[in-house]
């Protein structure tokens, strides 16, 4: 079990990484009786639990080398992001992210087993968070391949592995060795499509995240989108009220009426770019807010 936080896993970096739920400056109320207002101790306790979950999930690479000595920054970034996401999900949704689907143990002659459905805890993740979780799973699958082939983990440069040039080089090597006829182009395209499904290549999305660093969880009932321009952008907005599911609405160019979703709670984006939520037909404070936009012609 780990007993020290990884480098850069700090409360300050957590607050900078996740502005959409508000910065944590004091122990959440339901944990205060255990931590007596010591927010640093509270954070370290939850961060260590998250680190150990990730350490167990990636048990093969971390059994060979220490996180601190791994040379590749991308692996560290993915793991640290998942520590922060796990803490936030745990704290604000009150549900830990499940990395495993089953567990077994024996005590004497009695066998115990438990199973869970990890999808039940993933449903509350924002799309950007789900992508981080997918990155972690991709790493696990990739390391499993290296384990079988006996590759030295310290020699892996994941930063290069995720670049388009590296993918192209791998494609050329595979295709040229196996195919030398007029089907070359078609085969290469098919393999490229398959690789893109397996490898998370950063930077291809034309959606950008809108800055909501001034949003404070559960403190306002209406939020004004920065630099809102419905003539140049379409928007996607995710938000929720604490203890209720996350809702999403999407705009279209130059919309003229308020857009909203229908459910037990309602998420609105007004034609002036203000975002708000209703509960039982009355405005209610939002607990989570995430906004993306895409430029339209």
Number-wise, the strands total: 11
The secondary-structure class comes to alpha+beta
Poorly predicted regions are 199-204
Task: Please state roughly what percent of the residues sit in beta strands, choosing from under 5%, 5-15%, 15-25%, 25-35%, 35-45% or over 45%.
Answer: 15-25%
Q: What is the helix content?
A: 25-40%
Order of helices and strands: HHHHHEEHHHHHEEEEEEEEE
- State the end-to-end distance: 53 Å
Mean pLDDT figure? 76
Summarize the main sheet. 5 strands, antiparallel
Radius of gyration: 23 Å
Number of helices: 10
> Which of globular, elongated, flat, extended, rod-shaped describes the shape?
globular
Quaternary arrangement of the chains shown? single chain
Task: Give an overview of the whole structure.
The protein has ten helices and eleven strands. By secondary structure, the chain is an alpha+beta fold. Strand 1 and strand 2 (110-115) form a beta hairpin. The strands form three sheets. Strands 4, 7, 8, 9 and 10 form a five-stranded antiparallel beta sheet that branches. It has a four-stranded antiparallel beta sheet with strand order 3-11-5-6, with no helix packed on it. Helix content is 39%, strand content 18%. The longest helix has 23 residues, at 127-149.
């Amino acid at each position: 079990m780990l007993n020290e936080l990884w480098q850069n896993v700090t409360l300050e970096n957590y607050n900078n990484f996740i502005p959409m739920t508000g910065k944590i400056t004091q122990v959440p109320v339901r944990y205060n009786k255990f931590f007596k207002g010591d927010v640093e101790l509270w954070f370290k306790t939850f961060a260590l639990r998250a680190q150990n979950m990730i350490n167990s999930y990636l048990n093969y690479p971390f059994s060979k080398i220490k996180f601190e000595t791994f040379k590749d920054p991308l692996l560290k970034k993915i793991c640290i992001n998942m520590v922060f996401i796990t803490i936030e999900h745990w704290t604000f949704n009150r549900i830990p992210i499940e990395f495993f689907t089953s567990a077994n143990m024996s005590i004497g002659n009695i066998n115990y087993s438990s199973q869970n459905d990890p999808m039940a805890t993933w449903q509350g993740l924002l799309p950007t968070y789900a992508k981080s979780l997918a990155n972690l799973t991709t790493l696990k699958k990739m390391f499993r391949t290296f384990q079988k082939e006996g590759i030295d983990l310290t020699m892996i440069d994941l930063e290069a592995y995720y670049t388009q040039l590296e993918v192209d080089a791998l494609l050329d090597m595979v295709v040229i060795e196996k195919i030398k006829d007029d089907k070359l182009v078609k085969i290469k395209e098919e393999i490229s499509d398959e690789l893109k499904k397996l490898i998370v290549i950063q930077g291809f999305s034309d959606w950008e995240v809108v800055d909501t660093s001034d949003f404070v969880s559960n403190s306002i009932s209406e939020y004004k989108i920065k630099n809102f321009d419905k003539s140049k952008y379409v928007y996607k907005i995710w938000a929720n009220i604490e203890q209720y599911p996350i809702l999403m609405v999407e705009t279209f160019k130059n919309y003229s009426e308020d857009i909203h979703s229908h459910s037990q709670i309602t998420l609105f984006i007004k034609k002036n770019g203000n975002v708000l939520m209703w509960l039982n037909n009355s405005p209610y404070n939002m607990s989570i807010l995430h906004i993306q936009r895409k430029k339209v012609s």
